[in-house]
């Protein structure tokens, strides 16, 4: 059955069938091959999108801008200081205005409700560049990367996520793994509780796709992992929680010892970035001076042979390009 995503918004992987996600992954691989071969793209010529950023970013902004321009389109960037959205103008009114100017809208910010309002009222495809609840473009890039480095089909891949099992990346992985029939384990302290509504939702999908979605505080869950995936311990806007999070999550720092406990000599280390893996950032230095180590992964793992974090970062561009081409071209 042919897949047609023309005009669709990309708010969460939960909105898509496994076949539609497979289509976007295949398209991402194809567009990456064409880029590597020097074949110019023209599928988005004459198309214009706007990027709305309440949260700063390196990879998401660069990925959307390069993906769009490499296919012949153009981009306008607006941050919190350069628009009236949410200040003098409601999200609904902003959506109705921007939908008349642009062919698509990307939003990166806090509330999932905002990206949903943009999709409801703009009349054009809307793309979730990250919210507090989800990060679907990242998961698409991650799945591309796994397929490049792991000989198993996705349905046979086990992903273990050590750390804050309540954050947007953990939830995004739960959605993605449920949809694609994968094995996912959120590995974190028992004090942290996954949202019951989210767990019920992914388990319902998992029953249809054959996925396994688990939460554990037992290190035995590392056994057989194909991917160890982590994120920083405190997201943007949560800096005041760093001392508490560091104390709680230090036992879940990714180390060579943790990788060995998987029993898999080919286990992959992945991270959405940015990462605190050394003390070469101002924030890591500031907390280290206070006696708090905020590194969620050791430098040895981050720079080591199991790490594919920079392939993963590059694939943000190719996977986002696939989403744009699929929905706009």
Mind explaining what this structure looks like?
The chain is α/β, with parallel strands linked by helices and 329 residues long. The chain has twelve helices and nine strands. The strands form two sheets. It has a five-stranded parallel β-sheet. It has a four-stranded parallel β-sheet with strand order 2-1-3-4, sandwiched between helices. Helix 2 links the parallel strand 1 and strand 2. Helix 1 (18-36) crosses helix 5, helix 3 (91-101) packs across helix 4 (112-122) and helix 5 packs across helix 6. The protein is globular and about 50 Å long. The protein starts with 17 loop residues before the first helix and ends with a helix. The mean pLDDT is 96.
Structural class: alpha/beta
Please tally the β strands and state the result. 9
Q: How would you spell out the order of helices and strands?
A: HEHEHEHEHEHEHEEHHEHHH
Low-confidence stretches: none
Strand content: 5-15%
Q: What would you report as the Rg, rounded to the nearest angstrom? A: 19 Å
Q: How confident overall, as mean pLDDT?
A: 96
Strand arrangement, largest sheet? 7-6-5-8-9
What percent of the residues sit in helical stretches (DSSP H or I)? 40-55%
Distance between the first and last residues' Cα = 19 Å
Q: What summary fits the major beta sheet?
A: 5 strands, parallel
Q: Tell me, what's the shape?
A: globular
- In DSSP terms (H or I, runs of 4 or more residues), the helix count works out at 12
